[in-house]
Automatic annotation (TrEMBL):
This is V-type proton ATPase subunit a. InterPro entries: V-ATPase_116kDa_su (IPR002490), V-type_ATPase_116kDa_su_euka (IPR026028). Belongs to the V-ATPase 116 kDa subunit family. The keyword Membrane applies. PANTHER family: V-TYPE PROTON ATPASE SUBUNIT A1 (PTHR11629:SF72), VACUOLAR PROTON ATPASES (PTHR11629). Keywords: Coiled coil, Hydrogen ion transport, Ion transport, Membrane, Transmembrane, Transmembrane helix, Transport. Pfam families: V_ATPase_I (PF01496). GO terms for biological process: vacuolar acidification. Essential component of the vacuolar proton pump (V-ATPase), a multimeric enzyme that catalyzes the translocation of protons across the membranes. Required for assembly and activity of the V-ATPase. It comes from the Eukaryota. The chain crosses the membrane at residues 421-444, 465-483, 546-568, 589-616, 636-653, 754-775. GO terms for cellular component: vacuolar proton-transporting V-type ATPase, V0 domain. It comes from Cynara cardunculus var. scolymus.
């Protein structure tokens, strides 16, 4: 026991030791102190104003100002993105800008940009109208010429334009030049205009219904695309001319045009006037193009100037807002001259925090120093593991199940090895492992470049788990060498086979199979098993028994870790009435099964282990006969069975009664010494040992212990069976690889046609990449995840803690990304 206590601590085995601290900060140095602590990132503040709304806090005005500046910066970023410009990712360092000065500067830039955008929209709107007018003049003129020739043939003529002097607002463009002369109201009229192409069919149908078919609708596609000034998208439009008769029809048509967003333009019937107006429109278009180009260059220059400093401004505003948000978590003392803050920090970080606070006091020229002292806390400390880029992914896998309780044994230490190994047991193929290794090496080689880029959700997950993928691929190569499978093909890598065929057709089902003629193959599965009659029974037996051995070993590791947890928290009750009976129960049944598997492998016995385990329960006193593997097996089975039966009430009954006894002694004043032991630790066993000062609910504790005991007993059976997924997925992966190799690649290669061979090779490569390397990898990953979360971690891991989340500028930047 003393030896275990004297062992050096592992950094990742248990979370960092935390301490609860209080800060008393003078007002004049508060902002600088919080800023320095944010750069350090090792202190988690507790909200002392939790009962106040965000609008009742001290620095709410500063937070609002920062939020408003963030809105302006997002506006600038959107404008730069719309303009197709790039903001500088690494701007030149500039002198520190005061927050008030930056606020004024941002307001000026926003006002300037809004004014530029408004002018640009007006100019663009005028330009669009002139461009549409030009296209209407060109297209509608053709309709009018064809209409006139038709009228001459029929003895009719167009008497009046649709835009008489009664509707001056309809002819807003070039009004004086396009006013027609007196017209005959009884004659045929027309309306010309332009409409988005997507609305033409509905527009025509609505016109037809409104006039009951008394119209002639002509249309032609516009030659140029029109830019929408609001969305900056190019819109395809269609020019139309509607011929009709009557004042009432004109009113209906104009209303329908307004409803559909069609722009109507006057077109004179006189060809001379048309050409004059067209020339004037072209002249004004040329002037507007020049004006628009100048405005765009001026706007882009302003945006480029803003974009050069945008990144550093955004970082500065984000930091300032985070500082004021943190200051809002602090409490003013009664004199309003200092701020009081509380929080958690790792013990190793105390000197660094004190040094940062001293620097803040000196830099702010404060006459009063910042007081930093340790306090006692009632609540449980947060959990903090110091990880690196290699161990971080494995810690995230464990944290996805639940964050470790403070100072609880961390499963990530063992997950680093057991997770990729169990994955490889299911995925074992050294050809596929090499493919995964190449992918992992590419991600690791480019981690500097990829780490600074914004990746998609899938690539970000793949990049974050690059070192998990690395170990998964290495273990897959190792297990593939043991299985002797390279894309399902065996190779004589470690020497010649120990078996040979009795006849030339030994791979056929009707033959008597293989005979052994030399020493066993030195490493892994003998390649001669591939294709033989007994291949599947042999590999099934091997992988099934191997899965049980791995499962029992890992579950025993989990129970042993519960022992180390009990030692660490000094909980002798958990050792005596939880760890010991659990070890006895699991190993009396399934540990014994593992022993039988190893003995059968070593002796080559033909005993039926199914029969042995079933009749161990049904007929423990019967003679084993040919299923006896060693002398004294039957009495040993009886002893183990009785031990397993005794272990169940051992787990169930003593612990609740002992806890009740300790609670009653506590309030009778006879066991004050016991109060110092962790057997009364409220965190040692959630639900059972967590009792209040004045009440102890024995029924609740007993029911919880009963559920825990039944769960362990039933879980021992179900969890052992669950590890058979290692056998099932390994077999499925191997057989699927064999099918693709034999039924696709070899079948195609049997033809002399080069096209068939290439098609077969392409199908084989596609199936290998997308089915075996992607889907099978994901499947094996998820199954390995389940084995760790359910079968392994439920033996010792509570996972009811909460993460250490310090105030850190680096974390704010990561969250923003």
């Amino acid at each position: 026991m003393e030896l275990l206590k004297n062992l050096p601590e592992m950094d990742l085995m248990r979370s960092e030791k935390m301490t609860f601290v209080q800060l008393i900060i003078p007002v004049e140095s508060a902002h600088r102190a919080i800023s320095y602590l944010g750069e350090l990132g090792l202190l988690q503040f507790r909200d002392l104003n939790d009962d106040k709304s965000p609008f009742q806090r001290t620095f709410v005005n500063q937070v609002k100002r920062c939020a408003e500046m963030s809105r302006k910066l997002r506006f600038f970023k959107d404008q730069i993105h719309k303009a197709g410009l790039l903001s500088s990712a690494l701007p030149t360092l500039q002198p520190d800008v005061d927050l008030e000065a930056l606020e004024i500067q941002l307001a000026e830039h926003e006002h300037e940009l809004i004014e530029m955008n408004a002018n640009s929209e007006k100019l663009q709107q005028t330009y669009n109208e002139l461009l549409e007018f030009k296209m209407v003049l060109q297209k509608a003129g053709g309709f009018l010429i064809s209409g006139k020739s038709y009228e001459t043939a029929e003895g009719r003529e167009l008497d009046e334009n649709v835009y008489p002097s009664d509707y001056p607002e309809s002819a807003s463009l070039l009004e004086q030049a396009t006013q027609p002369g007196p017209s005959n109201l009884a004659g045929l009229r027309f309306i010309s205009g332009i409409i988005p192409k997507s609305k033409v069919l509905l527009f025509e149908r609505m016109l037809f219904r409104a006039t009951r078919g008394n119209l002639l609708f002509n249309q032609a596609p516009a030659d140029d695309l029109i830019m929408d000034p609001v969305s900056s998208e190019m819109v395809e439009k269609t020019v139309f001319v509607v011929f009709f008769s009557g004042e009432q029809a004109k009113t209906k048509i104009l209303k329908i045009c307004e409803a559909f967003g069609a722009n109507c333009y006057p077109v004179p019937e006189d060809m001379t006037k048309q050409s004059q107006i067209t020339q004037e429109v072209l002249s004004r278009l040329s002037e507007l193009e020049t004006t628009l180009d100048v405005g765009i260059r001026q706007r882009n220059a302003a945006l480029h100037s803003i974009g050069f400093h945008l990144t550093i401004w955004m970082n500065m505003v984000k930091r300032e807002k985070a500082v004021f948000d943190t200051l809002n978590m602090l409490n003013f003392d009664v004199t309003k001259k200092c701020l009081v803050g509380e929080g958690w920090c790792p013990i190793f970080a105390k000197p660094q925090i004190q040094e940062a606070l001293q620097r803040a006091t000196f830099d702010s020229n404060s006459q009063v120093g910042i007081i930093f002292h340790v306090m006692d806390a009632v609540e449980s400390p947060p959990t903090y593991f110091r990880t690196n880029k290699f161990t971080n992914a494995y810690q995230e896998i464990v944290d996805a199940y639940g964050v470790a309780k403070y100072q609880e044994a961390n499963p990530a230490v063992y997950t680093v090895i057991t997770f990729p190994f169990l994955f490889a047991v299911m995925f074992g193929d050294w050809g596929h492992g090499i493919c995964l290794l190449l992918g992992a090496m590419v991600l690791i080689a480019r981690e500097g470049k990829l780490g600074s880029q914004k990746l998609g959700s899938f690539m970000e997950m793949l990049f974050g788990g690059r070192y998990v993928l690395l170990l998964m691929s290495l273990f897959s190569i190792y297990c593939g060498l043991i299985y002797n499978e390279f894309f399902s093909v065996p190779y004589h890598i470690f020497g010649s086979s120990a078996y040979r065929c009795r006849d030339a057709a030994c791979s056929e089902a009707h033959t008597v199979g293989l005979i052994k003629y030399r020493d066993a193959y030195p490493f892994g599965v003998d390649p001669s098993w591939r294709g033989s009659r007994s291949e599947l029974p042999f590999l099934n037996s091997l992988k099934m028994k191997m899965s049980i051995l791995f499962g029992i070993a890992q579950m025993n590791l989990g129970i042993i870790l519960s022992y180390f947890n009990s030692i660490f928290f000094s909980s002798s009750i958990d050792i005596r009435y939880q760890f010991v009976p659990q070890m006895i129960f699991l190993n009396s049944l399934f540990g014994y099964l593992s022993l039988l598997i190893i003995i059968k492998w070593c002796t080559g016995s033909q005993a039926d282990l199914y029969h042995v385990m079933i009749y161990m329960f049904l007929s423990p006193f019967d003679d084993l006969g040919e299923n006896e593997l060693f002398w004294g097996q039957r009495p040993l089975q009886i002893i183990l069975l009785l031990s397993a039966l005794v272990a169940v009430p051992w787990m169930l009954f003593p612990k609740p009664f002992i806890l009740r006894k300790l609670h009653s002694e506590r309030f009778q004043g006879r066991a004050y010494g016991i109060l110092r032991s962790s057997e009364m630790d409220t965190d040692s066993e959630p639900g059972s040992a967590r009792h209040h000062e004045e009440e102890f609910n024995f029924s609740e504790v007993f029911v919880h212990q009963m559920i825990h005991s039944i769960e362990f007993v039933l879980g021992s059976v179900s969890n052992t069976a669950s590890y058979l997924r290692l056998w099932a997925l390994s077999l499925a992966h191997s057989e699927l690889s064999t099918v693709f190799y034999e039924k696709v690649l070899l079948l195609a290669w049997g033809y002399e046609n080069i096209i068939i061979r290439m098609v077969g090779l392409a199908v084989f490569a596609f199936a290998t990449a997308f089915i075996l390397l992607m889907m099978e990898t994901l499947s094996a990953f998820l199954h390995a995840l389940r084995l760790h979360w359910v079968e392994f971690q439920n033996k010792f891991y509570h996972g009811d803690g909460y993460k250490f989340k310090p105030f850190s500028f680096a974390a704010i930047a990561d969250d923003e990304d």
